[in-house]
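Lecture notes, continued. The same structure-token format from the folding unit now serves as the input rather than the output. Read the line below as a description of shape only.
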């Protein structure tokens, strides 16, 4: 059996990924990644932007596809460049990651086809999960932004 090369490696230009920190009170909605990179780790619902789609549309679509919940997208959190190099120093992956925060409706999440699982976690539980450190930082930023909007 031949393994096909990863089409997201050694691309001619960066790929745009969009994620959503979906909040409900003191909980955050996370998915367990079902595919590389970071397969098995917990992450934000998100994925690749499609041609002709705004980043906000991407955020809402990906949240729905990966969790079954129609998240209300609130605001931009941050833009992060994820650049990985191979042993020869050549860029093998370059993602421009655009993260939003939003409010999730009532209902239980269900994992979409790209995810192994989808669940709610408290802020304290997030600290114990295997995940990329930048994801933890973005989640903390979202809780901070959401807290700032409650008093307005």
């Amino acid at each position: 059996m031949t393994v096909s090369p990863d089409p997201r490696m050694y691309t001619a230009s960066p790929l745009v990924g969009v994620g959503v920190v979906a909040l409900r009170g003191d909980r955050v909605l996370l998915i367990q990644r079902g595919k590389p990179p970071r397969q098995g780790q917990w992450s934000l619902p998100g994925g690749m932007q499609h041609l002709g789609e705004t980043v906000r549309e991407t955020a809402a679509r990906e949240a729905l596809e990966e969790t079954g919940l129609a998240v209300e997208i609130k605001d931009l959190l941050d833009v992060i460049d994820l650049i990985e190099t191979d042993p020869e120093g050549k860029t093998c992956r370059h993602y421009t990651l655009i993260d939003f925060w939003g409010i999730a409706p009532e209902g239980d999440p269900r994992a979409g086809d790209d995810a192994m699982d989808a669940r709610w976690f408290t802020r304290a539980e997030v600290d114990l999960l295997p995940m990329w450190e930048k994801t933890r930082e973005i989640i903390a930023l979202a809780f901070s932004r959401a807290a700032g909007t409650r008093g307005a």
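Point for the exam: The chain has a mean pLDDT of 92.
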